[in-house]
Design a protein that fits this description.
Elements (H helix, E strand, L loop, with lengths): L8 E7 L11 H11 L4 E6 L24
Amino acid sequence: GFGDPPDLVVSGINAGQNIGPVVELSGTVGAARAAVASGVPALAASRDALGLPHYPAKLTPVSGSPRGTRS
């Protein structure tokens, strides 16, 4: 391995919105999801592109195993 796991994974920032049906194709979101699947908290960050509609931000926790409960 690579030693101790990180305390937090921050993925991004990329241009464009990772919303709707295309979010499953996002490498930014995919990296955060892979971290959470490994029990590491994660945050994916994107920015709005000029000229596209604005969608209000809403943070939703992603469930996963807390770091202290790894098997």
